[in-house]
Design brief:
Layout: H1 3-28, H2 33-75, H3 78-93, H4 97-109, H5 115-139, H6 143-158, H7 163-175, H8 181-193, H9 206-225, H10 242-272, H11 276-318, H12 320-336, H13 339-351, H14 358-382, H15 387-403, H16 406-418, H17 422-438, H18 450-480
């Protein structure tokens, strides 16, 4: 249990955002002395919460996911694997911090969309498409074909859905692959991939397909829920007292985490039967995750997201260019220290035998996210249709997929998922909402889609990287020949 390592990683992730936001907020007059103290306390809570949470994931949830995945594989029954994948994908999504924060932000802009309804819709999509990804690996289906068919279905469904729900749907696809679900999904997927030892694509794609499901399920929700374009900021109720907010989060997170805890207990009693010391260790890890999520959510709602909204409003009132520049820097800061990004870059370096280094991958992802944030803010300020960005973006991605090696297609879509960490929902989305509210004529609904952009741009750039990598390999083979 290396909690100090997690603390260092989280500080590197949160501190640049906190410092830059503080400097900008003080310069623009967003915060007075009292608000500054609240924001600094929120930053501390976010750091402590994420540290405990990620430590708990490493100690308890990821090992448990790996054990459960191995147990499913031992069954040798495709139907047991499929049903188990659906259940596990569903329950691991319910307490996901990114999803919970997104649902809360959507509810604040459009109170008719209850956070629980949106969370359940996202969880159903993850469960179903995680099962699809498991089935794909077992039966050897080509990843490119599955992704192409999935996005054809997405764009076909989107033609019948209100644009506000289209934005939320694509944001949901990015938010669902956060620090809780990604390690769990990758741990389960690793057990399945071990069955196909000579298939390098089998190691990737689980996060990518798990991101597709929520997009479709939220679009289906939009078909039944009706239009959502007449959105507006919910009435402010004032700042909840700190301990009242903390108490409410203990209850909310407990209810969301309960299904996962029950499944872990049942698996231990009837299937895993781990030694008591190991079971206690993983139980303590889950407890760490619970306390960490509670503290993280408290920090986000106490001041962290509010300052982001106010900052977005203040920056757009001064200059759109200043807003875009700040957004680019925030985008770089978010991805450069995202723990899931670090894991993925290591995997890519190993899979390419060092030809694509961690530094190259990290620079590519950082550039992609920075550009994505700027594009999303431009869309927000000018109330542009999300189709002006999503449709050409994914059209280029699909065309590039024809020339991109299959491994890099899977890596690219995985990259889009892991780049959207907790700070995307907790800070960048509120920043866009604030920019929309402060720009006068901008629609608040246009602020959604920023997570979708962050998930899209890395895919495009990684595919280009894959094409370059393939050319280098061919040149090397000709030189050796």
């Amino acid at each position: 249990m290396d909690i100090l390592k997690q603390l260092r990683e989280v500080i590197v992730s949160v501190l640049p955002i906190g410092l830059f936001a503080t400097i900008l907020s003080m310069a623009t007059g967003v915060m007075d002395g009292g608000e500054l103290m609240r924001f600094l306390l929120s930053c501390l809570l976010v750091i402590v919460g994420l540290t405990l949470f990620l430590t708990g994931v490493e100690v308890g949830i990821t090992p448990m996911g790996s054990r459960i995945g191995s147990a499913l594989m031992k069954s040798r029954s495709l139907w047991i694997m499929i049903i188990g994948s659906i259940v596990l994908g569903f329950i691991i999504t319910l307490p996901e911090p990114d999803v919970q924060v997104l649902a809360s932000q959507v509810n604040q802009v459009n109170p008719s969309i209850h956070p629980s309804v949106l969370t359940y819709a996202i969880a159903v999509g993850v469960g179903i498409f995680f099962a699809v990804s498991i089935t794909r690996t077992i039966l050897g289906w080509p990843m490119k074909i599955i992704l192409a068919l999935s996005y054809i279905a997405i764009f076909a469904a989107a033609a019948f859905v209100d644009e506000f729900f289209v934005s939320i749907a694509f944001d949901s696809g990015g938010a669902t692959t956060g620090p809780l679900s990604v390690p769990f999904i990758m741990a389960l997927g690793a057990g399945v991939a071990s069955m196909r030892k000579h298939d390098e694509e089998a190691e990737f794609g689980y996060v990518a397909l798990s991101s597709v499901g929520p997009i479709l399920s939220v679009m289906l929700l939009g078909l039944f829920a009706g239009g959502g374009t007449e959105a507006g900021i919910a009435a402010e109720e004032g700042v909840l007292p700190f301990f009242t907010l903390l108490g409410s989060k203990f209850g909310e997170v407990g209810r969301a985490l309960l299904p996962l805890i029950l499944v872990c207990i049942l698996m231990q009693l009837f299937v895993l039967r781990m030694p008591r010391t190991e079971a206690m260790r993983e139980g303590v890890g889950i407890l760490y995750s619970y306390i960490g999520i509670v503290i993280f959510f408290t920090g986000v709602e106490y001041s962290f997201s509010d300052v982001a909204r106010e900052l977005g409003s203040a920056l757009i009132s001064i200059s759109p260019l200043l807003l875009y520049a700040a957004g680019f820097v925030f985008g770089l800061s978010v991805v450069l220290a995202e723990p899931a990004v670090m894991v993925l870059t290591e995997q890519v370096e190993d899979a390419t035998s060092g030809r694509i280094s961690r530094k190259v991958m990290l620079a590519t992802l950082a550039l992609g996210v920075g550009l994505a944030v700027v594009m999303a803010l431009i869309r927000t300020v000018h109330s542009l249709s999300i189709w002006a960005f999503i449709l050409p973006g994914y059209a280029i991605i699909m065309l590039l997929m024809i020339r991109t090696p299959g491994l890099f297609s899977a890596i690219g879509f995985d990259s889009g998922g892991v780049a959207t960490g907790p700070m995307s929902s907790a800070f960048l989305l509120p920043l866009a909402i604030g920019a929309a509210s402060g720009s006068g004529g901008a629609s608040l609904a246009s602020s959604f889609g920023i997570i979708a952009m962050i998930a899209m741009m890395p895919i495009l750039l990684i595919e280009l990287l894959g094409i370059i990598y393939q050319r280098r390999v061919r040149r090397s083979e000709r030189g050796n020949g």
